[in-house]
Write a structure and sequence with these properties.
- The complex is a heterodimer.
- Chain A is mainly beta.
- Chain A is built from no helices and twelve strands.
- In chain A, strands 2, 5, 6, 10, 11 and 12 form a six-stranded mixed β-sheet that branches. A four-stranded antiparallel β-sheet of chain A has the order 3-9-8-7, with no helix packed on it. Chain A has a two-stranded antiparallel ribbon with strand order 1-4.
- Chain A is globular and about 40 Å long.
- Chain B has strands at about 5, 10-15, 20-25, 30-35, 45-50, 55, 65-70, 75-80, 90-95, 105, 110-115.
- Classes of the chains: A mainly beta, B mainly beta.
- The interface between A and B is medium-sized, with 22 and 24 residues.
């Protein structure tokens, strides 16, 4: 069965610092992988997705993610974090039958 | 383009009462999803509709939860009777059928508190 693990419940970074959020997945075939962001009181917004091809995926708001099949990982990165990036981030696997991780809450220190 | 609309945004009820949530998807989106997001967890799919037919309701607690999508547009999700553990945010999403993957667009959710 497909599943997603986000090992970090909460991460705090300073504004301007780099960010990496971890995601590990379990899936029987080549997965569809996603990162969503959820701000307080808001729905989920898609940051980026991976279906196939280039393993480094560019998304919105300066985010990127790298698919590593050998490690079953799809980590999200951003070179310089802004205060407005503070939110909850969810990794998901699948397509129409989507499975979400438990999320990582990002706090940005001034 | 208008997004997915949900109402109410917040609801507080006592256990054993009933409650209903409404969702209006993006115009033209044939697929509609209801998710339950318990505090500290990721969203969990409850039910998926394709037009007005149910595609997947395997994780819907059918003894108390029901959902319908009459005319293949708006949808309602009902809980009757509610339990304390139903306290969660209920998210609606919709997608346009194209190819093997359909990007899902999420509404703002309805936060339910059961006392």
């Amino acid at each position: 069965a497909q599943s997603v693990t986000q090992p970090d419940i909460h991460i705090t970074v300073s504004e301007g610092a780099s960010l990496e959020l971890r995601c590990n997945y379990s899936y029987g075939a080549t997965p569809y992988l996603f990162w969503y962001v959820q701000s307080p009181g808001q729905g989920l917004q898609l940051l980026l997705k991976y279906f196939s091809g280039d393993t480094l995926v560019q998304g919105i708001k300066g985010f990127e993610a790298e698919f590593k099949r050998s490690q079953s990982s799809f980590n999200l990165r951003k070179p310089s974090v802004h205060w407005s990036d503070a939110a909850e981030y969810f990794c998901a696997v699948g397509g129409n039958d989507m499975r979400f991780g438990a999320g990582t809450r990002l706090t940005v220190k001034p | 383009e208008a997004g997915v609309a949900q109402s109410p945004r917040y609801k507080i009820i006592e256990k054993r009462q009933s409650v209903a949530f409404w969702c209006n998807p993006i115009s033209g989106h044939a697929t509609l999803y209801w998710y339950q997001q318990i505090l500290g967890q990721g969203p969990k799919l409850l039910i998926q509709f394709q037009n007005n037919g149910v595609v997947d309701d395997s994780q819907l607690p059918k003894d108390r939860f029901s959902a319908e999508r009459l005319k293949g547009v708006d949808s309602t999700l009902k809980i009757q009777p509610a339990k304390l553990e139903d306290s969660a945010v209920y998210l609606c999403a919709s997608s346009y059928v194209k190819g093997s993957y359909n990007e899902q667009f999420f509404g703002p959710g309805t936060r339910l508190t059961v006392l």
